[in-house]
Design a protein that fits this description.
CATH superfamily: Protein of unknown function DUF192
Oligomer: single chain
Number of domains: 1
Largest sheet: 7 strands, mixed
Shape: globular
CATH class: Mainly Beta
Helix content: 10-25%
Radius of gyration: 16 Å
Number of helices: 3
Strand content: 35-45%
CATH topology: Jelly Rolls
Strand order of the largest sheet: 6-5-8-3-2-1-9
Length: 147
């Protein structure tokens, strides 16, 4: 009898995660020769939720976090099931540093200098494309303003 209850409770979690992705605005970013379909986390609630509870992320998909001001922002992976890499970006979209993050950990991964944006992608995406600190991510200037 408990199995149907577990299945019924699992379904709303999956629906909530997919509906959250559908409600988040998207933007196209360019990194070198690569296009990125990035969800934009521009509100406090969107930034707090991030990619939590997701089970997959398409190859060239990511999430752009837009912060109200440049600062040494930090990210962590509580309730995040995907291994991710995060690139911290300055106001112009230049990568300050890239950090690899392990799922479901509470380790802080911080910007090396004041960052205005953070871009999360599947772990290893940046290194596999030859994108490193100093590279520029085009299109961040088109992101919604933080709220």
């Amino acid at each position: 009898m408990s199995t149907p209850i577990l299945l019924l409770t699992a379904i709303p979690c999956a629906v909530l995660a997919s509906s959250a992705a559908a409600q988040t605005p998207h933007i196209e970013l360019i990194a070198g020769f690569y296009r990125i379909d990035a969800e934009v986390a521009a509100t406090d609630a969107q930034r707090a939720q991030g990619l939590m509870h997701r089970r997959s992320l398409a190859a060239n998909q990511g999430m752009l976090f837009v912060f109200p001001q440049a600062a040494r922002h930090c990210m962590w992976m509580q309730n995040t099931y995907l291994p991710l890499s995060v690139a911290f970006l300055d106001e112009g979209g230049r990568i300050l540093n890239i950090e690899d993050m392990q799922p479901q950990t509470e380790d802080n991964h911080c910007a090396a200098k004041p960052a205005r944006f953070a871009l999360e992608m599947n772990k290893g995406w940046f290194s596999s494309k030859g994108i490193a600190a100093g590279s520029r991510i085009a299109g961040v200037d088109q992101s919604p303003l933080p709220r």
